[in-house]
Write a structure and sequence with these properties.
The protein is built from 13 helices and nine strands. The chain has 370 residues and is α/β, with parallel strands linked by helices. The protein has a single domain, classed as Aldolase class I (TIM Barrel). The chain has an eight-stranded parallel barrel with strand order 1-2-3-4-5-6-7-8, surrounded by four helices. Helix 2 packs antiparallel against helix 10.
Amino acid sequence: MYSNILYSQLNYRTSNNAFATLLETAIAHYTNLEINDIRMLLNECINNKEKKAQIIDIVSNQKSQKHNNTLQAIIPQYHTSQCIDDCAYCGFRKSNPHVLRTELNDNDFEKELELILSWGYTNIEFVYSNDTNFPAKRIAERIVKAKRMGKSIGKELEIGINAPPLSLEDYRILNDAGIDFVLLWMETYSDSYSKWHPNNTPKSDFNYRIDIFDRSIQAGIKKYAFAVLFGLSDWVEDVLNLIAHGLYIRKTYGVEPYIIGNPRLKRAMGLNVENSRFIIDDENYIFINYLFKLIFPETKLFINTRETIDMNLELIKGGGDFFTIDCGTFPGAYLNSELVRDGQEQFHTSYYNREKTVALLQEKGYKVIF
């Protein structure tokens, strides 16, 4: 389990390899990279615009040759906003009196899914807060139902879940139901994790959370997605620990990350945290996304609507990523006339008009596959 070795990696040694040598290894033999090599790459680039640009150009060219500016559209579907956790940055936290608590019942689930399918989507992320009304068995039933609905109109759906960490047996249930991938944003790997997640809540168990992919992979689910939430702690430390986690899974299970997310802390109802001193600046934010792609070249970024469309255009050069266009962060969002709705959202997002966004991406030379 990763929790058994995480803390031994917090104090990184200095790499003696030159930047050019490390970059060459990353390009041609990325599986040979060690975390200390990556620390060297990161440290060399943080204050050096030319080296950042060099990596961005190399990765963009690689992606263009492999993916020819193709993007895959993905859409989140929220199933509940009731939560027993109390994360200080989240609109769904249990102590927040300002958010309207809702649950997507079975009828509305099917109705909304039909709408999503009519828009052409085949990649869908089921999103769950920590709601005891949604055990693994109920989530599995919805996965099975969604797959059947897709097949009935000639579509093979790819379904992932973004839910609190589950047990090995629960992941076996989901695997049997046909789940395609498991997502979990790790939030932060730093000691400040306990500051953001009160110790009287399930999410306070950091080790159980961080071992999620050991359990899901052992259960047979080979695709996983992870991220840190930029703004909770020192971003350099979090980036290195996220990468170290991915290297551990590569070495232990021979599995590459399917998706790496890149969320930055945004305003939530009843709480303004956007001025956190840990927010990563735009220049390094763009660079870090390409560093992820350099180290994990088979991995897709999860482009999200927390960012402006202009920022996201900076992140997708060459293609090969998942791109979020429609995004409502509350249950039943797509059945409402207002996709962005204060008082119900988990966090604030930008609104992208589907037709205009697709047209813009096409104008920029991208092909969007739904």
